[in-house]
Specification:
Helices cover 41% and strands 21% of the residues. By secondary structure, it is α+β, with helices and mostly antiparallel strands. The longest helix is centred in the N-terminal third of the chain and has 38 residues. The radius of gyration is 27 Å and the shape is elongated.
């Protein structure tokens, strides 16, 4: 969440930066009024407590001097009633301030383009020229059904729409990509592997910014503990260090996490309904970093390069764009999207968002570090990025490496995992 002190000190600047996202953030002025009355109430409470203590101290003296203590007792009761009322006001104000900050997004980085939506995103890089075909190319779902490696009808029978059954070498391709990505990031890029829980509690979802804004999109378990299916490995991995002080010598701390992710809202109605581009359940390899503030920009670029390396190694065309303020995720300050070329759409589609949340998530999750003994605690910066979305990588391989006879050539880097060089 945002720093309340920064909102107090730089009110107009904060509102202006937030307004670049689109929307009206003038409600922060109302927040500051609540905060002003809260602070006044705290000061008044301390004064009343002091006066109450003084009155309590006088009781013994009055007794010694044989003076009536009833006026003092009435005065103490009146102080106590006022203190109780002010304490209730402070408690109510604290809750209102907290709820307002939880629904307020992160400040966009000053370096990103300002725009109302994705049309203002800026392309900064391309890798490889998309392949030309001398035959009518097919979509991944046409290839998958013809090769009997993707079964959408039986998945719908089992679970409903936006699910798939991977079969045969299709299942092996998905599994091989997971292992390939985990090996690449752990062995070459130096991330620590984890497989976290596939469920998360409400506190964890709040810490990363999924709640309260995206609460309706989450799959809630029928469980009295308030558990939700994991929407992305970002949630459990960031929460590894919730309410902790990380040893400064461990920063930057790097994890690569594999999970299956679950999202109730898988895109707009009628959009991307065919195939596996938007699913309610999908596998994902996620990169997470905890860094010192001064290192986060360089670590952000490093994470982007690590995610790109997956596509470079596989030989798949892609581009990198920097998101505008209007297309930026709720918790993020700056995001690079990696988009792969899909021949069936003659377009690039997102396969990874590599983002820097700065201290926004660390404030929500209370994740800090100390530079030296006795120094003030500081919030770490958190970064995350898909390394990559596995199902979309399957799509990219199927479509970019399809052959005239309907077969699919396996990229050389995957062949040791697949035990095959072609799907036919």
């Amino acid at each position: 969440m945002l720093d309340l002190k920064q909102i107090r000190d730089e009110t107009e600047k904060v509102i202006e930066r937030l307004s670049r996202r689109g929307g009206d953030f003038s409600y922060l002025n109302d927040l500051l009024e609540v905060d002003r009355k809260r602070r006044e109430a705290i000061v008044e409470t301390e004064l009343l407590k002091s006066r109450k203590n003084e009155a309590s101290r006088l009781i013994g003296k009055y007794k010694q001097e044989k003076k009536p203590i009833e006026p003092l007792l009435k005065e103490i009761d009146a102080f106590q009633d006022q203190i109780r009322s002010l304490d209730e006001l402070v408690k109510k104000s604290d809750e209102e301030i907290k709820n307002t900050l939880l629904r307020t997004p992160n400040l966009p980085d000053d370096s990103i383009p300002i725009g109302k939506d994705e049309s203002a995103n800026i392309e900064i890089k391309r890798h490889l020229t998309p392949r030309g075909f001398d035959f009518p190319y097919k979509s991944h779902y046409e290839l998958g059904e013809a090769l009997d490696i993707l079964d959408f009808n039986r998945a719908a029978k089992i679970a409903g729409s936006r699910f798939v059954v991977y079969k045969g070498l299709g299942a092996r391709l998905e599994r091989s990509l997971i292992q390939f990505m985990m090996d690449l990031h752990a062995n070459k890029h130096g991330y620590t592997e984890i497989i976290p829980p596939y469920v998360a509690n409400e506190t964890s979802m709040i810490a990363t910014g999924q709640f309260p804004k995206f609460q309706e999109d989450a799959f809630k378990l029928n469980d009295d503990r308030g558990l939700y299916l994991n929407p992305t490995a970002e949630v459990p991995t960031i929460n590894l260090h919730r309410d902790e002080v990380i040893d400064k010598n461990l920063l930057s701390l790097k994890y690569v996490a594999y999970t299956t992710a679950f999202r109730k809202e898988a895109g707009s109605a009628g959009k991307d309904t065919r195939g596996i581009l938007r699913q309610h359940q999908f596998n994902k390899v996620e990169l997470i970093k905890f860094t010192k503030p001064e290192d986060s920009e360089a670590e952000h670029l490093g994470m982007l390069a690590d995610a790109e390396d997956v596509l470079i190694t596989l030989g798949i065309p892609y581009r990198v764009i920097v998101l505008s303020t209007g297309d930026l995720g709720f918790s993020m300050s700056k995001t690079y999207d990696i988009e792969v070329w899909l021949p069936s759409e003659q377009n690039y589609r997102e396969i990874s968002s590599v983002s820097n949340a700065n201290e926004y998530q660390a404030r929500r999750g209370n994740i800090k570090f100390r530079r030296e003994e006795g120094a003030k605690l500081e919030y770490v910066h958190t970064l995350n990025g898909s390394g990559l979305a596995v199902g979309r990588t399957v799509i990219a391989i199927m479509e970019n490496f399809q052959q005239k006879d309907g077969s699919i050539v396996i990229p050389e880097a995957l062949r040791p995992y697949m035990g095959a060089s072609v799907i036919k």
